[in-house]
Amino acid sequence: MTITDGDYSETRRLILKCAAAVALVGLGNIPFSLLPAFAAANDKYPEDAFKQKSDAEAIKVLYGKTAEPSDKVKLDAPEIAENGSVVPISVSSSLGDVTSISILVSENPNALAASYKIPAGTVPSVANRLKMAKTTNVIAIVEAGGKLYSTTKEVKVTVGGCGG
Amino acid sequence: MASTIRVRATSSGETTEVQALIQHPMDSGFVRDAKGEPIPPHFIQQLTFEYDGKNVFVADWGPAVSKDPYVKFAFKGGKKGDELKVSWSDNKGATDSTTAKIG
Fold first, then answer.
1. Which positions in chain A touch B75 (Cβ < 8 Å)?
2. CATH architecture of the region A5-159
3. What would the pLDDT profile of A45-99 be if each residue is shown by its tens digit?
4. In a domain, B34, yes or no
């Protein structure tokens, strides 16, 4: 992918706006941490989890527990993403009894990007494309047998894309 | 109106692989337009795949999912010629759905 001069100044402005947005969101964040843990078992959209700013808070609100690192969670993401508005990310797991897979981008304005419910009979593997505001950790969470497992990978972002 | 959803579901005998591409702006609410006005958030919150009366995959999305989202997954079973129902709803209450034949 090549970036022309015109695109460059455009995207540069975007990065600055992103940074401002991140700062603003930070100020209004405090009340959300007081919300009770959200049950992830039903099919309701987990609105509160998506509003959390930090990855740790989002995981707590979504699942009500913490994850332990595991090499049985496989996270495929590029080392370097040239365009932060479209970063291909896929997660799979060799664990049995997987019930959900979630993907978080640590330093996005809201860390939780996507959460997938995996009913029995569905293969614990998902591929999608996410936006990343800047270079940061991508965290894959797999819920298996009622426990949480995670893998983290840093993705370097050349051009941020918290917009579209 | 043409559907916003494009789905390809392919059965390999044991499993069915599903790829979906949806037309949607996925505005995050953090971006401003050319005049400096903030573009309000507008994004798909839930995307559901239903086969044989059961959900085989449910995606809960925040605004960090890329514009015109793409998703790929697979489920066990699924016969050629059977129908897979796909539907989404966004934060403004809009919805769309389609059915795809497993090939």
1. 121-123
2. Sandwich (2.60)
3. 999 999 999 999 999 999 999 999 999 999 999 999 999 999 999 999 999 999 9
4. no
